[in-house]
C-alpha cells in the first residue's frame, strides 16, 4: 500500500523529531535489569525494555515486530521524555541496543536504555519510576510504510507490517503527579532528585518566564518556545506541590 498519512490517519498525524509526519503509539513493556555486560564502564544505570509489539493496542492495531526499520533511529538513539525535543532537559538517556529479537517464540522490539542519571535529575526520576514499576509503558514515534486494514473476520482494525522507528519516549514523566508521589513515598526516587529537577527548570527559564506565558494565537517558533516554557512551568508547579505535601 502506498501510504497517504493525511487521509488515512487524520486524527493521529503528528510531527516527529526529524520534522516528518508520522504516528505515535503506546507500547506495553516488560522492564528488567540487564545481565552484566563485560567491559562496561559507564556509571549510569541501564534497564532492558522488551516490548509486546504484536499485541492489540488501544487503537485496535498491531505493529508487526519484524517490520521495524531501525537504521535512522540508530544514528541518534536518544530516549526522550514524552516526545519533547525543545530542550535538552527532556533527554533522559540513549538506547545502547535496539533490535528485533525472538523471545519465547515471539518477535519483540528489544531495547537496552542507559539513563543519563549523572547529568540529568529527570533521568534519575525516570529510572526510579521504571525500576520501581510505577511506570510500565513507553511511546514510539514511527512512520508507517505499509499496513493492512482489518476486516470483519480479523480481531484488529489495522496491522502495520512495515514501519520506520524515529523516536522512543518515556511517558508520564513527570506529567503524572500520582506516579511521582507514589514513587517518592515508596523510596524509588529521592526528594533531592525532585529539588534538583526544580532547580534545573528554573535555570532553563528566563526570570520573566517564571510566570506562565500567554501563548500566541499563531504557530511558529514563538508559539513553540512559549509552549515549551508552559510545559516546564507546569512541571515545576507539580514538583512544588509534591514536595509541599510530603
Description:
With 246 residues, the chain is an alpha+beta fold. It has two domains: 5-170, no CATH class; 177-244. It is built from six helices and ten strands. The protein has a seven-stranded mixed β-barrel. A hairpin with an 8-residue loop joins strand 9 (137-149) and strand 10. Helix 3 (121-131) runs antiparallel to helix 5. The termini are far apart. 29% of the residues are buried. The model is unreliable at 208-216 (pLDDT under 50).
Summarize the structure.
This protein has helices at residues 5-8, 71-75, 121-131, 177-186, 191-204, 221-244; strands spanning 14-15, 21-32, 46-51, 61-63, 68-69, 78-81, 91-103, 106-115, 137-149, 158-170. With 246 residues, it is of the alpha+beta class.
Give the topology:
Blueprint: H1 5-8, E1 14-15, E2 21-32, E3 46-51, E4 61-63, E5 68-69, H2 71-75, E6 78-81, E7 91-103, E8 106-115, H3 121-131, E9 137-149, E10 158-170, H4 177-186, H5 191-204, H6 221-244
Parallel strand pairs: 4-10, 5-10, 6-10
Antiparallel strand pairs: 1-2, 2-3, 2-9, 3-8, 6-7, 7-8, 9-10
Helix pairs in contact: 3-5, 5-6
Amino acid at each position: 500500500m502506498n501510504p497517504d498519512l493525511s487521509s488515512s490517519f487524520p486524527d493521529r498525524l503528528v510531527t516527529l523529531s526529524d520534522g516528518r509526519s508520522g504516528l505515535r503509539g503506546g507500547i506495553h513493556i516488560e522492564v528488567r535489569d540487564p545481565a552484566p555486560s563485560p567491559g562496561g564502564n559507564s556509571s549510569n544505570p541501564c534497564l532492558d525494555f522488551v516490548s509486546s509489539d504484536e499485541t492489540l493496542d488501544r487503537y485496535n492495531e498491531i505493529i508487526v515486530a519484524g517490520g521495524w526499520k531501525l537504521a535512522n533511529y540508530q544514528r541518534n538513539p536518544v530516549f526522550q521524555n514524552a516526545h519533547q525535543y525543545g530542550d535538552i532537559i527532556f533527554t533522559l538517556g540513549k538506547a545502547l541496543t535496539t533490535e528485533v529479537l525472538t523471545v519465547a517464540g515471539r518477535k519483540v522490539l528489544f531495547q537496552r536504555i542507559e539513563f543519563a542519571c549523572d547529568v540529568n535529575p529527570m533521568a534519575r526520576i525516570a529510572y526510579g519510576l521504571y525500576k520501581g514499576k510505577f511506570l510500565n509503558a513507553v511511546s514510539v514515534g514511527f512512520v508507517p510504510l505499509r499496513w493492512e486494514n482489518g476486516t470483519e473476520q480479523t480481531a484488529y482494525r489495522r496491522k502495520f507490517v512495515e514501519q520506520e522507528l524515529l523516536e522512543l519516549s518515556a511517558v508520564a514523566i513527570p506529567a503524572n503527579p500520582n506516579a511521582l508521589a507514589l514513587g517518592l513515598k515508596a523510596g524509588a526516587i529521592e526528594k533531592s532528585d525532585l529539588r534538583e529537577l526544580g532547580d534545573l527548570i528554573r535555570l532553563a527559564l528566563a526570570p520573566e518566564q517564571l510566570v506562565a506565558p500567554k501563548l500566541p494565537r499563531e504557530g511558529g517558533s514563538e508559539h513553540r518556545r512559549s509552549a515549551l516554557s508552559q510545559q516546564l512551568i507546569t512541571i515545576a508547579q507539580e514538583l512544588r506541590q509534591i514536595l509541599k505535601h510530603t
